[in-house]
Write a structure and sequence with these properties.
Layout: H1 5-28, E1 32-33, H2 36-45, E2 49-54, E3 57-62, E4 65-70, H3 76-82, E5 85-88, H4 94-136, E6 144-145, H5 157-171, H6 173-178, E7 186-190, H7 197-208, E8 211-216, H8 217-221, H9 227-241, E9 245-250, H10 253-256, H11 264-279, E10 287-293, H12 301-304, E11 311-314, H13 320-331, E12 336-337, H14 340-345, H15 352-368, E13 374-375, H16 376-389, H17 398-417, E14 422-426, E15 430-432, H18 442-463, H19 471-486, H20 498-533, E16 535-537, H21 538-548
Bound molecules: adenosine-5'-diphosphate.
Adenosine-5'-diphosphate binds at residues 153-156, 191, 193-199, 292, 326, 329, 352-353, 356.
């Protein structure tokens, strides 16, 4: 047990006192007790000095030795004749007093020690209780030191490139500040669940070697009323203290948009606090907030304004090549004999997370069947199980893949033709960029409507059928047409007229129909390419169309 400083002093003083008392007692009565006869002999035959009468005893010195003898047993007159005698008034209580003082000191010390001991025990207990209750708090604000690097994240080369600069900034903030370069404060990772958004954020922290603060948007708002804003404040306070650092907010839409169960003003307060914190950053604060969402369209506009989450990085479901490299990572330490191409082909629509559990399940399956090596049969056997476990993961039959490819190709060709910019288009995703302009023309909005209609019209034209995969695009087209009429006065009549919305859509449809007829060959060629590669860039679209015309 560690003694406190105060306790050590008390111990030392008591020890000195005890030693002093014993020393005093010892020094005071070092005399040799002798009987009366011996005393008489000494007194009469030799030189006697320093005689003292104290209490019932006579003390005297003779031949360098001090003697003690009961005073009544000797002839005192003889002593007086030899030397001067001092009479000391004895204190009958002295010994008792000393004993009592020592005992009292000992008892006091003992009591004190016991009390201290109890206090320490109580403190330890209360610390334990506090620790336990801290553990029960939802996700405490503690950073982790991430040892994940981009090597652990497969198949997102473009995303890596976009984040390279941020990593460099976190590593060498001075370099950027000296040039007056303002870094983004927030990066929004947009993509469906399980595609590795969290993993990417951790990799940025790992690459830059800075602490990583994880908070889920839901955790801000699931606690008590008024706690959300406080928690945001606390989070940034801690992050600033450890800057440069990364603050990662998963599912930011929970804060960014009102959702069931939570009072609106609570969400509002939390969101405002987040905005205040982000606006309050100095450019040199060295904190970068990375947030993840799979529904950017649900986010509050305030979050997307300049100086907040002004950098967006889209992370889509992995394409075939990317699936291969993810599979490679998870198979690396497992004995296997499989054709990666084959597995990549049968896992269209799998996210990185789903692929990782697929490999795991396949390994378990092989093991259960007493095999030493994982084979394709193991993958086939567990594929459906993995799919059932994961909600909403799409798998496409060959026929569905073909339908989807043709659908996407029609949209891509339409967008290319009407100058709606996009970087790439895939079997499962398209990223049409929003207009950068402040003032958007009626023709541009109409063209966007046509892109949304192109897929469905192509289905009708080529397959003589409509499919449910068009649902989202049809909805978008209608929303745009409604905006045109309701907000921009672009309908035929002044004022809001539903008939105008229908007219815009109908005219666009006819236009698209004609266009699709003329472009069918190009669209089908592009569809083949999408089927083969799952993803094509705008450049690829350009090449394919130019070869045709
Ligand atoms: P999100 O945040 O997008 O929902 P996560 O980052 O939580 O996805 O991904 C869950 C898990 O899936 C990761 O921990 C990792 O094991 C695996 N994973 C997802 N994407 C990838 C990828 N591109 N490379 C390697 N593993 C991945």
């Amino acid at each position: 047990m560690e003694l406190s400083k105060k306790n050590r002093i008390i111990l030392a003083v008591s020890a000195v006192l005890i030693v002093a008392i014993f020393a005093f007692a010892y020094l005071r009565d070092r005399s040799r007790t002798i009987d009366a006869q011996t005393a008489e002999n000494l007194i009469s035959n030799s030189l006697v000095s320093d005689a003292v009468i104290e209490g019932p005893y006579l003390y005297f010195k003779s031949g360098g030795v001090r003697y003690k003898v009961p005073k009544d047993a000797v002839d005192l007159k003889e002593v007086y004749s030899k030397t001067a005698v001092t009479i000391v008034e004895p204190n009958p209580y002295l010994a008792d007093v000393i004993t009592i003082v020592i005992l009292a000191l000992l008892v006091a010390y003992l009591l004190r020690w016991l009390r201290k001991n109890r206090e320490i025990k109580e403190q330890q207990l209360s610390e334990q209780i506090q620790f336990a209750s801290e553990l029960q708090k939802p996700a405490d604000i503690q950073p982790i030191i991430s040892n994940i690097t981009f090597q652990d994240v497969a198949g997102i080369d473009e995303v890596k490139e976009e984040l390279e600069e941020i990593i460099d900034f976190l590593k060498h903030p001075r370099k950027y500040l000296n040039f007056g370069i303002r870094m983004p404060r927030g990066v929004l990772l947009v993509g469906p669940p399980g595609v590795g958004k969290t993993l990417i954020a951790k990799a940025v922290a790992g690459e830059a070697g800075v602490p990583f603060f994880y908070q889920s948007g839901a955790s801000f708002v699931q606690i008590y009323v008024g706690m959300g804003a406080k928690r945001v404040r606390e989070l940034f306070k801690r992050a600033k203290a450890m800057a440069p650092a990364i603050v990662f907010i998963d599912e930011i839409d929970a804060v960014g948009k009102a959702r069931g169960g939570m009072r609106n003003d609570e969400r509002e307060a939390t969101l405002n606090q987040l905005l205040t914190e982000m606006d309050g950053f100095e450019d040199s604060s060295g904190i970068i907030v990375i947030a993840a969402t799979n529904k950017i369209e649900m986010l509050d506009d305030a979050l997307l304004r300049p100086g907040r989450f002004d950098r967006r990085v889209f992370v889509s479901l992995p394409n075939k090549e990317e699936r291969k490299s993810i599979l490679k990572i998870y198979l690396a330490n497992k004995p296997h004999y499989v054709d990666l191409d084959e597995i990549a082909e049968m896992t269209v629509g799998f996210s990185g997370a789903a692929l990782s559990s697929l490999v795991n399940e396949a390994a378990i399956h092989a093991l259960k069947n007493g095999k030493k090596i994982i084979e394709i049969e193991d993958f086939l056997a567990v594929k459906d199980k993995v799919l059932l476990g994961k909600r909403k993961i799409l798998t496409y039959s060959d026929e569905e893949k073909r339908i989807q490819a043709v659908y996407q190709a029609a949209k891509a060709v339409m967008a290319y033709w009407h100058d709606i910019s996009f970087s790439k288009i895939g079997l499962l995703s398209d990223h049409f960029q929003h207009s950068e302009k402040e003032i958007v023309s009626k023709s541009e909005i109409l063209n966007r409507i046509k892109v949304h209609l192109a897929g469905d019209m192509m289905m009708h034209y080529h397959f003589h059928e409509h499919y449910t995969n068009a649902a989202n695009d049809l909805k978008e087209a209608r929303l745009l047409a409604q905006d045109m009429v309701e907000h921009y006065g672009m309908g035929e009549h002044f004022g809001v007229d539903i008939a105008d919305v229908e007219k815009i859509l109908e005219d666009a449809r006819l236009d698209v129909e004609g266009f699709i007829g003329r472009m069918e060959t190009g669209i089908l060629k592009l569809a083949d390419e999408i089927l083969k590669r799952e993803i094509v860039t705008k450049e690829d679209v350009k090449e394919i169309l130019h070869d045709l015309f």
